[in-house]
Each structure stands twice: as C-alpha cells, then as structure tokens.
Amino acid sequence: MKECPRCFWLAQHKVWKRPSGIFPTLPSGMDRILKIHFDKFMEQGKLPPELCENNDCVDMKIFDDKEKMKIWQSNFKGIQFTDKDGNLLRGAVDNILVKGKKLIVLDYKTRGYPLKEDTAQHSQNQLDTYNFLLRKNGYKTEDYAFLLFYIPREVMATGEVIFDTELVKMKVDVDSAENIWKKAMMLLNKNCPQETCEWCEGR
Q1: What are the structural domain ranges in the chain?
Q2: How far is residue 41's CA from residue 57's CA, in Å, rounded to a whole number?
Q3: pLDDT tens, N- to C-terminus, the chain (203 residues)
Q4: Sign (positive/negative) of CA torsion 195, 199, 202, 203?
Q5: Helices assigned H by DSSP within 45-146
C-alpha cells in the first residue's frame, strides 16, 4: 500500500497482481529448522542459548500451546482478525514468548551481513501488526517484541556453517498498526487510485 496504492487496490480487488520475483528458499529453510530448534527447548521448558544468555529474556518461556502455534505459524491461517464488515487481516508469526500473563512476539531474521543502524526498523510495521492481531484476539502483549538475527560468520573445516546471533528488542506501537489497517480499508472502499507505478501502468 505504501509503495503503490494502485497496485494494492488492484491486488486486493483481485483485478491484477504485481509479478513477484524469485523467492529465496534459504530464509524459509532457516525458519523451518529454527522452529524445530525452538520446539526442542519448549518441550524442556527452557530457552535456547540465543535467548537465555540475554538479560532481556529473564523470567520468559516459549509459548507451549502446540496446536495454537501450529495455526499461528501457518502462512495459510496465522493469527486472524475480521472486522465488522468482514475484512480479514492475518499474519503468521515465527514464535511467541511468555512473561507472566503477557505474550511477546519473536521473529527470526536471516541476514548475510552485520546489522546496520536502521536494519531492525524495516520490521517495525510487521511487529506492530502481530501485536495488533494478538490483542484483537484477546491476548495481552508486552509493549515490545524481539527480532533474532542469524548472521553467517565462517565455514568450519567440516563444512558446518557457524552463525552469529543478535537479539534486538523493539518497542511496538499497536495504534500505528490499527491506523494502517484503517487507512487500507478507506483506500479499498474508494475508487481505484489513478496514479500508477512502473508495474501497474496500463492496468
């Protein structure tokens, strides 16, 4: 929507969909094995080393409702919210931590290079939206979330790839996510925007 309102309108009204590029399989592969990795620690009631060594994660545990997490992690289901007009918003989380009675979103990121100053900011809307969805489903969430970056460091003589990890704590703004949702609904309820981009010109 932010990049091109017209493309967004056309896609949501199922008129046309902007061509997508080649999807890299490495990040999705990493997500898959990281979920297995975290599940092993969840079964033990522990946090993995990437988290337990961080002071921000004291007194936390991994959300252990397996059936619910299976839905929430699914790209075809995810955490869902339907407004009074039947509009559906959904998002699939990587994982959830628990502290007391509140939930904390944890999102994995695979990156080829060390973090830049603004790297984490690119995920702000994503984290805000996950928290918005959880609260709309009746859950209490902390006012922050975590990004866990995995960054390749070296290849061992055995062929094993060693990753460094960096945990970034991000303040979340649920009001911002709700405002974006409302703006999206207002846009979709209007006529198709006339201003085009290189993708939707002529559509």
Answers
A1: 25-188
A2: 14
A3: 888 999 999 999 999 888 877 777 878 889 999 999 999 999 999 999 999 888 889 999 999 999 999 999 999 999 999 999 999 999 999 999 999 999 999 999 999 999 999 999 999 999 999 999 999 999 999 999 999 999 999 999 999 999 999 999 999 999 999 999 999 999 999 999 999 999 898 87
A4: negative
A5: 49-52, 66-72, 124-136
